[in-house]
Amino acid sequence: ELLQVLVPKLESFLQTLLAPPPQPAPLPPYTWMPPSFLAALCHMILAASIRPSGKFSRCLHHLGQGINILDVDLQELQVVPPVAVGFEVDVPPALICSVRPLLRLKVAMLEMCALIHLTQMELSSAQQEIVTILDLYTMFPEALSSCAYTCHMLAGHYAHTQKLFSRARQHFSKAKEWAGCSSGRVMAEVCLALAALAEETGEAHSAAQDALVPLTRKLEEMIGSPEQCGVLLASSLALVAQAGSGDSLEARARLTKALRLAHGVLEE
User: Fold this and answer.
1) What is the mean pLDDT of each run of 10 residues along the chain (268 residues)?
2) Is 121 left (phi over 0), alpha (psi -120 to 50) or beta?
3) By CB atoms within 10 Å of each CB, which of 3, 8, 102, 222 scores lowest?
C-alpha cells in the first residue's frame, strides 16, 4: 500500500524536476542541489522502492535514466572519465565539491545495477558495472574514499559467483575493515562466512564458525532485518555443514525464522 502511494508521488515529482523552466525564469532560491541531481536521486529512490517487488527491468530503466543525467552533469563540468591519475590534485577544490556528490550517486546507482544483475545471474553486465565502479574509484580516490567498502563487497560477490571463494573471502575481509557502520560490518562478516562455507574445507568451516558465533549471540540486538536474515541463513548452513550432517532441526528453525522475517519485510 505504501508503494502504491509513494511511487506515483515520486514519478510526479520527477516530471516536475525534468520540466523546462518557465520563461522568463525567476531568480532561483537557494537549493540543496540542482534539479538534475535531484532527478537522478529520484530515479534511484524509485528503483530502490520497486526492487523488492522483483520488477528488475523497471528498476534498471530508472537507474539507467539516473546515470545518464549524472553523466550529462559531469560532462558539463568537463569531468569525463577516463581522467589522468592525480586529477583531484590539479583541479580547484570548488570543482571537487561539485563533482563529489555526482560521483557518489553514480557509484550507488551502478552498485544497485550490479546487484540486480548478479541476482539475475547476468554476470557479464554485472562485471561491466563493477569494473566501471573500480575505475571511478581509481580515478577519484579522495572523492570516492567512502566507496571502498562498496568496491570490496561487489568484488567479493563477483568472485563468489566465479567459485573463487578464497578471493571472495579476501575482499569481504577488506570490506569489513572499510565498513563505516555496524550494519556494513555484519553483512561483510555474513558474506565472509558464506564464502568460507562454500570452500568445503575443515579450515574454512572453522573460520565460518568463528565469524558466526558472536553474530548469532548478538542477533536480538541487531536492528536491520537484512542483517538478521543474513546471520540466520549463514548460521543455518553452518549447522548443516558441521560434522557432515550437523543439527538439521536447529538449522531448519533458523532458516524458517529468516524466511518469515524476509516475507514480513516484503509485505510491509
Assistant:
1) 68 74 57 84 92 92 96 88 69 84 96 96 96 91 91 97 94 93 90 90 81 82 79 86 66 85 67
2) left
3) 8
In order, the DSSP letters of the chain are: -HHHHHHHHHHHHHHHHHSPPPSSPPPP---SS-HHHHHHHHHHHHHHHHGGGT-HHHHHHHHHHHHHHHHHHHHHTT--SS--TTHHHHS-HHHHHHHHHHHHHHHHHHHHHHHHHHHTT-HHHHHHHHHHHHHHHHH-TTTTGGGHHHHHHHHHHHHHHTT-HHHHHHHHHHHHHH-SSHHHHHHHHHHHHHHHHHH--HHHHHHHHHHHHHHHHTGGG---HHHHHHHHHHHHHHHHHTTTT--HHHHHHHHHHHHHHHHHHHH-
